[in-house]
Amino acid sequence: MGHIEDFGHALAAFAVEKAQSKTPLYYADAFLNWYGCALAGSQQKTVERAIAFYRMDVSSELPPPIGRTERLSVSASIAVDCLSSACLAYDDIHFETTLHPAGPIASAILGLSRCHPVSGADALHALRVGMEIECRVALAMFGPDTGAAKGWYPTGIAGGIGAAAAVGRLLGFNEAQMETALGLAAARASGTRGTHGSMAAYWVPAIAAEAGYISARLAEAGFSCGIASLTGANGLIRQVALRPNVEAVLDGLGSRYVCETTACKPYPFGFIAHAVVKCCQDLHKKIRQEERSLHKLVVYVSPTSANLGGNPEPKTVYGAQVSLRYIAARVLSNPTRAFEPVDEDFSISEEIAEIARYVTVERDESLCNEQARCLATFEDGTECEIRCDVAPGAPGKLPSTEEIKAKFLRQVSGVRGREEAERLLSALRHIHDMSDISVLLTPTYRPRRPE
C-alpha cells in the first residue's frame, strides 16, 4: 500500500477516533471568534448580494426535478437533473477533452426556466454558447502538452464555466457581468478522476451544473469577482495547466464550433469502453458465423483507458460502467447488452463471469482513447485480431438523429411507457417553437401539433 493510501486511512481513522480528553479552550476561542465575525459581517453588502440570490432560489411552488415530485430549490433541482442525466453513463462525450458537455449546461438552462421565462430558441442558442465555452476552456487546460495532471475530471473543472455562460446569456448579461459569472464559476470548479467507480463520478457534473447557475445568479445580484479567477496568473487555468493552450481557446472562436464533435453516447458505459464494445460486437459476430470457441482474449487500449477501466471485478454498478473486462464479457455474452444500462442492483451473472475469465486488459501506448484492438485466441490455437480505430461516438462517427431518437424512446419507454415516450419525443423535437421551455417540467403538458 502506498504512502498516499496510508495517509488517507490514517485521516479517516483520526476523524472517527473517540475523544481521549477535553478539547482545549483554544477551540472555544476559535469558535467564538468565528461566530463574532459571522455576526459582525452579516449586514455587509457582500452578504446582502448573496442573500438576494438565495431569496430568488427558494423552492416555493417551483416545478420539481425531472421525473420527481419533491419540491426543491432551483439550484438543488439543477444538480438533481444533471445527476439523473449522468448516472446511467449514457449521456454524451467529447473525446478530445473527455468532457460530458451538455449535462451541466442543459440542466442549468432548464433550471433557470423554473423562475425565469426561457424560449426554446434562446435555450438552444445558450446551450451552444455554453458548450462551446466549456469545450474551449477544457482544451486550454487539458489539451496535448498542457502539462495538466491526468487526475482532473474535466467536466467538473470546465462544466460550471460553460453553464454560467449559458445562464448569463439568457439573463442578458453585459460583458462585465459575464466576466464576473465566469470568474465565480472558476472559483467553484472541482472534480477528480478519483471519484470513478462510485456515485460521486456522477455528482461531479451535478456540482458543475449547480455551480454555473449559482455563479450567474450571484453575478446578477451584484456579487463581484474578476475574470482573473479564471485566466489570471493565479487563476484556474494556470493552476491546472503548466502550459495553457490559449491558442486553442481563441482559434476560430465564433466561427468554428469545437463542441460540435460531441456525441450522444451510443453505449451506456464510460467513453473508454466504446472502441472495446465495437471490437467485441464484431468478434461475437465472427464467433457465431464461424462457430468458433474462444480460449483467450487480450484487449489492448490506451493508457488512460487502461487506468480508468482496469478494475477486473467490479462490485457495484458504478464500477461495472467503467470496467473494461466486465464490459467486454457482457457484450460477448449478448451484443444487445451493449445498449442496455447496467442494472442498479448489480451482480455478475455466471455466464458473464465465465467469459470474463478469458479476458485480460493491456495498455498500448500507441492507442488513443477512441481506439482499441483485441487479440482473440480460439480453442484450436488460431488467432484473430480485431481493431477499432474510430469508436462509435468519436469525431467522424457521431450518431445520427434517427439513432438518437431511437435511443430516447428505448430509455424513456422503460420508465414512462411507449406512449409517454413518443409524446415527449414529439415535444422535444419542436423545442424551437416553445415560448417557454418550463412546460417540459409539467407532467400534463401536451405539445401543440404542427400545422
Automatic annotation (TrEMBL):
<comment type="similarity">
    <text>Belongs to the PrpD family.</text>
</comment>
<dbReference type="InterPro" id="IPR045336">
    <property type="entry name" value="MmgE_PrpD_N"/>
</dbReference>
<dbReference type="InterPro" id="IPR042183">
    <property type="entry name" value="MmgE/PrpD_sf_1"/>
</dbReference>
<feature type="domain" description="MmgE/PrpD N-terminal">
    <location>
        <begin position="16"/>
        <end position="242"/>
    </location>
</feature>
<dbReference type="InterPro" id="IPR036148">
    <property type="entry name" value="MmgE/PrpD_sf"/>
</dbReference>
<protein>
    <recommendedName>
        <fullName>2-methylcitrate dehydratase</fullName>
    </recommendedName>
</protein>
<dbReference type="Pfam" id="PF19305">
    <property type="entry name" value="MmgE_PrpD_C"/>
</dbReference>
<dbReference type="InterPro" id="IPR042188">
    <property type="entry name" value="MmgE/PrpD_sf_2"/>
</dbReference>
<dbReference type="InterPro" id="IPR045337">
    <property type="entry name" value="MmgE_PrpD_C"/>
</dbReference>
<dbReference type="InterPro" id="IPR005656">
    <property type="entry name" value="MmgE_PrpD"/>
</dbReference>
<dbReference type="Pfam" id="PF03972">
    <property type="entry name" value="MmgE_PrpD_N"/>
</dbReference>
<feature type="domain" description="MmgE/PrpD C-terminal">
    <location>
        <begin position="267"/>
        <end position="427"/>
    </location>
</feature>
